[in-house]
Design goal:
Elements: H1 11-42, H2 47-63, H3 65-74, H4 77-100, H5 106-134, H6 140-169, H7 171-191, H8 208-217, H9 220-236, H10 239-250, H11 255-278, H12 284-302, H13 307-335, H14 341-370, H15 372-397, E1 400-405, E2 411-416, E3 425-426
Antiparallel strand pairs: 1-2, 2-3
Helix pairs in contact: 1-5, 1-6, 1-7, 2-5, 2-14, 3-5, 3-8, 3-14, 4-5, 4-7, 5-14, 6-7, 6-11, 6-13, 9-13, 9-14, 9-15, 10-11, 10-15, 11-13, 12-13, 12-15, 14-15
């Protein structure tokens, strides 16, 4: 089997991957349908309302992260996932029902978004940490990459399909597809072989929350990665707002063209995820280069003069963003102790996803006041400053230098000064 798909040789991961892929497609369809419902059926292209919905979905991830991480470390993760996925299916079914019956109001969407956020707060860190129970340690990076590939393959299929369904049979029935898709992941979790799952020791006592914070506080390498993903998640990854605004207000497109943008960006995202799955070891150098590439690509997309060029620039945007995220995720998972993984991943997801409640309303307001293009440019500027700041920090903390060489073809070397009295010697950054 190709190294890219090595984790699929393991039965439990293969079953989980199959169910998650179907569920991810439904999730992307649900996101597009929800955004279209808010933006065109419940409001007159009100980007602030869309930002509030997005914020409500992600706010619980921040507020409940410490408890969610402790929950993931104290109980068996498969049982937790069965509960959270069921809760997400129920909230999706309610939104579909009120939409189909014609009684849906904006406050319904707000309330259900908040409830989904609560379920997601418990689901995300558990799902991230569950990878290490399905595959051995040397395949964690591969499995994280494949999970990202599944998510972005679904992004390639889901938004475009959702746009067609909305135009054909309406928003409500598109939401029904999302509800039904949860059955696949619930079935997959039931079909897994429990005796083949790794069972790390469960945390005990009430000190779990404090231990998680203390562990991260004494790990500057993890804190740096969390700072990077916070800035990217808060200002650069608000695609469900920025693409909706660009498609409708700048280029005057409908549901089909809006949904197609998500699928086009997923071409780059899926390619990045598969490349990440192939790498045997995630590297900080890869993360920083990808972050810089995101700045350039997103700025080009913001300034694109036509819908076609905007869509084309979304490919490198997706490629660079989904190089940063699996790399950061793998670096954190591989560097933490197994009994702390749930709490650390909860904090990681809180930092990444939790920036959205701060960024989404701000981005929505910027779109209303200054136009859709600035919703993307603000993210380009913020992530650019983050890339520069992280590079300067590393250069000072670890005596790292960057040298561009041409002797064996153009390539970037990352160098660390071991002894200030000696010349720089090449050494890869952990």
């Amino acid at each position: 089997m190709s190294p890219t798909f090595a984790s699929l040789s393991i039965y439990n991961y293969r079953v989980y991957f199959s169910g998650a892929l179907v569920s991810n497609i439904g999730t992307w369809m649900g996101r597009v349908a929800q955004d279209w419902l808010v933006l065109t059926e419940l409001t007159d292209h009100d980007s602030t309302a869309l930002g509030i919905v997005t914020a409500l979905q992600f706010a619980p991830v921040v507020l409940l992260a410490p408890w969610a991480g402790a929950l993931a470390d104290r109980f068996r993760k498969r049982r937790i996932l069965l509960g959270t996925q069921t809760a997400l299916a129920v909230t999706s079914a309610i939104l579909a029902a009120v939409t189909l019956t014609g009684v849906v109001q904006l406050w319904h969407v707000y309330l259900l978004a908040l409830l989904q956020g609560v379920a997601t707060a418990a689901d995300n860190p558990t799902r991230q940490a569950f990878v290490s129970e399905m595959v051995p340690h040397d395949r964690i990076s591969n499995a994280v990459g494949l999970n990202s590939a599944s998510f972005n393959a679904a992004r390639l299929i889901g938004p475009g399909f959702a746009g067609l369904l909305i135009a054909w049979i309406g928003t409500g029935w598109t939401l029904v597809f999302n509800t039904v898709s949860f059955v696949s992941v619930l079935f997959a979790l039931r079909m897994m072989r429990g005796n083949e799952l790794e069972k790390p020791p469960l945390a005990k006592g009430r000190g779990g929350l404090r231990e998680g914070f203390a562990y991260v506080r004494h790990r500057p390498d993890i804190m740096l990665i969390m700072a990077i993903v916070f800035m990217l998640g808060t200002f650069g990854m608000n695609f469900q707002i920025t693409m909706a605004l660009m498609a409708t207000t700048v280029f005057g497109k409908g549901a089909g063209e809006f949904g197609l943008l998500g699928s086009i960006m997923a071409i780059g995202s899926l390619s990045a995820a598969l490349m990440s799955a192939r790498r045997s070891r995630p590297r900080l150098r890869t993360l920083l280069i990808a972050l810089a590439a995101f700045v350039v690509a997103s700025a080009a997309a913001a300034l694109a003069p036509s819908y076609v060029l905007f869509a084309i620039f979304l490919v490198p945007v997706g490629l660079s963003a989904m190089t940063v995220l699996p790399t950061a995720n793998s670096m954190v998972q591989l560097s933490v102790a197994p009994h702390m993984r749930g709490r650390v991943m909860a904090l990681y997801m809180a930092i990444f996803m939790g920036g959205t409640p701060l960024g989404a309303p701000l981005i929505g307001w910027i779109g209303s006041e200054y136009g859709a293009r600035w919703t993307i440019l603000v993210g380009s500027i913020a992530t650019g400053l983050t890339a520069v700041g992280a590079t300067i920090y590393l250069m000072r903390r670890d005596d790292i230098r960057f040298r561009y060489e041409w002797d064996r073809g153009p390539h970037l070397n990352v160098l660390r000064l071991r002894d200030r009295s000696q010349a720089l010697t090449p050494e890869q950054v952990r």
